[in-house]
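Render this sequence as a predicted structure.
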Amino acid sequence: MTQARPESTRTDARNNRARILAAALAAFAESTEVSLTAIAKRAGVGIGTLYRHFPNREALIFALYQHQIGELIDLAPTLLGANPPLDALRLWFAEVAGYAQRKFGAAEVIHAATNGGLDDEYYRPFVAAIAQLLSAGAEDGSLKPDLDPEDVLLQLSVLWRIDPATGGAARINRILDLIIDGLRANTP
């Protein structure tokens, strides 16, 4: 009998985890009421495998939250590398808005999954991503200097309240324009 190498076992576990997260993301986009059994089936794993990675629904939701917030944080420098700072900021805000729209109606579930300060480890990096975008814009003169990234985050928090079913995309674009206009440096 051949024993599996530890690397392959870890690779399989990582692949299973990734498949479960992808399946959960798709399933929760369709309905926040989806069962863990349905998610496991969609991921092509057994329910025991799902529970080994995520002992309960809240753990799975929190892992999705962590993954998606991490992707948003990592996107800021990527956008800055490919766009002028003002464009990068607007594109990043649009991604944050898209995330908010996908999570509309699930705020209570996310709050329950992150209750107790579990999301604190992402707050500072998220604010740092905003600061990086603001700093680049201040440096090239397109944004006001000395903007507070936490103030900007508070402005963005309105995105969580926009119902996608009632003209959300149009309203988001108008609000993002207002936010960007308020951050833009005065031009002569």
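Summary. The two ends are 77 Å apart (CA to CA). The mean pLDDT is 82.
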